[in-house]
Amino acid sequence: xxxxxxxxxxxxxxxxxxxxxxxxxxxxxxxxxxxxxxxxxxxxxxxxxxxxxxxxxxxxxxxxxxxxxxxxxxxxxxxxxxxxxxxxxxxxxxxxxxxxxxxxxxxxxxxxxxxxxxxxxxxxxxxxxxxxxxxxxxxxxxxxxxxxxxxxxxxxxxxxxxxxxxxxxxxxxxxxxxxxxxxxxxxxxxxxxxxxxxxxxxxxxxxxxxxxxxxxxxxxxxxxxxxxxxxxxxxxxxxxxxxxxxxxxxxxxxxxxxxxxxxxxxxxxxxxxxxxxxxxxxxxxxxxxxxxxxxxxxxxxxxxxxxxxxxxxxxxxxxxxxxxxxxxxxxxxxxxxxxxxxxxxxxxxxxxxxxxxxxxxxxxxxxxxxxxxxxxxxxxxxxxxxxxxxxxxxxxxxxxxxxxxxxxxxxxxxxxxxxxxxxxxxxxxxxxxxxxxxxxxxxxxxxxxxxxxxxxxxxxxxxxxxxxxxxxxxxxxxxxxxxxxxxxxxxxxxxxxxxxxxxxxxxxxxxxxxxxxxxxxxxxxxxxxxxxxxxxxxxxxxxxxxxxxxxxxxxxxxxxxxxxxxxxxxxxxxxxxxxxxxxxxxxxxxxxxx
Length: 594
Fold this sequence. Notes:
Layout lengths: L7 H12 L3 H35 L2 H49 L3 H6 L2 H43 L1 H7 L3 H38 L1 H6 L3 H53 L5 H42 L22 E9 L6 E10 L4 E5 L6 H6 L9 E6 L2 E2 L5 H6 L1 E4 L10 H5 L8 H10 L3 H5 L18 H15 L3 E5 L7 H15 L3 E5 L3 H6 L2 E6 L2 E6 L1 H6 L3 H14 L9
Helix pairs in contact: 2-3, 2-5, 2-10, 3-5, 5-6, 5-7, 5-10, 6-9, 7-9, 7-10, 9-10, 14-16, 16-17
C-alpha cells in the first residue's frame, strides 16, 4: 500500500505561513520553554548539593540556603510553565481557527458540482476532527518536543561533564528507542490516516440518515442503516486496535530500554560511590538526569507517533485547500451597467459536466429582453436546469457565452453577477434559525418593516403572525417545522427582499396542494412582475403565463414560441403537453382558452 501521507517537514512547511501572524507569541513561548528547561535542569544539581550538605558536609546553613533556592526555583518554574502553556494554547486556538476559516471559506467557493461529488459528512469531519488533531500537536506536541529535546541535550551535556562512564551506560537506551519510534511511527501514521477516512465515512453516512430520517423510517430501514453504520464503526475500531498495538509495542520498547539504562546507571553509580570516586549527592543528581534522558526519549518517541497522526490529518485538510476553485472572479472584472436592466443572451452555448461525459447542451441561442418571462419545458435530462445554472455561473460554458446586459458573465465579479439575480428552487431549504434570519439572509441590513413588507407581498405574513414568536419563531433544521407551502413563500419573500433584476425559478408549486399552490402562485406573480424570469416549468399555469416557451430535447432547443403556437405545430411540445399537462388543464379555468 502506497504511503501518500505528508512527511513531517512538509507538514511544518505548510503550517509555517500560518504561524507568521503569531510569531512574537511563539518567540516568547519558546523563550519560556528554554527558561523552564534550564530551571528543570538546575533541580538535580541543587538537590545533589542539598544531599551532600546534609549527609557529607553536615552544614546546616548551606542546607537552609539550598532549600530556599529550591523553593524559589519551584515557584519560578510554575510561573514559567503557566506563561508558556497559556501562550501555546492561545496560539494553537487562533491558528486552528484560522485554518478552519480558510478551509470553510475555500469550500463554500467551490462550484455546486463539487458538492454533488463529495460527501458533506466527510467535509465536516475534516473541519472538525482533522483540524482538532492539528490543534493538539500545536498546543501540546511542539512545546513538548522543544522541552524534551532541550532536556535531552542539557542532561546529556551535564552527565558527560559529571562522569563519562555513567554517560556511556545512559546513552545505551537511545538507539533502540529512536529506531522503534521511526519504524512504528510510520505504521501509526498510515493507520491513523485510515482511521480518519473510515470515521469520515461513518459520519457522512450518519448525516445522510439524519437528513433523510423520514425516508429511512418510511421504508423501515432503521435496522439496515444501523448495521451499515456499525460496519463502518467496527472497521474504525479494528484500525484503532491496530494503532493501539503499534503504540503499545513502542511504549514497551521505550520503557524497557529507558528504565533498563537507569538500572544500569544505578548499579554502576553504586560501584563508584563504594569506590569513593563519586559522592552520594552527585549520584543522586546523575540519576535525576538519567531519568530526564529516559523521559525525554520516551516523550520524543510518543511525540513522533502523535506527529505522524497529525500529519495524516493535515494531509486531508491540505488536500482540500490545494484543490483549485472551479469558478473564480476574473483578474480584471467588468462592471455591470447600473442599474441592471436584465437583458439575458445565450450565444452558441455548449456544455458538458466533464471531459469524458457527453454534452448536455449543444448550440443554445436565446435572447431574453428585460421583463420577459421564458419557460423551459422538456423531459427529464433535457438540460433545463443546466441551462438555468449557467446564468449565475454555477458552471461555466464549454463553448459560446452567456451575457447579462451585454457583458459576458465570466468577466463579472461573482458577487456582482449573483447579486443581480434571485433564485427560487423547487425545494427551498431554510437554515436552522428564526424566520426573520431566513428572510433577511440575502439582505442582512433589511429593516423589520422591509422584512414584513416582503412577507406580505409573498402572502407569508398571516401565517408568520400566527406563531407565538411571529418573525422570531425558530424553523428547525431545513425548515422542517413549516409546511412545504410556507417554506416556498418564505423563499419567495427572501428573494423579494433582495429585489433582483433577473429571476431564476425552478417552479416552486409543482408538489403543493391546491390551496398552497394558489397562494404560492399569487406570490410568484408579484415576484415575477417587471423582472426577467427564466422558469423551469412543471405546471400548466406557468406555461400559459410565459411570454415564450422553449422546448428542450436532448440538449437542444427543439422548438420555441407561445403555448398556442406550439400546440398548433406537431412535435415534442405536443407530446409533453399530452403527457404532463392534459390532466392539469382539465382542472384549471384556463383550459377553455387553450
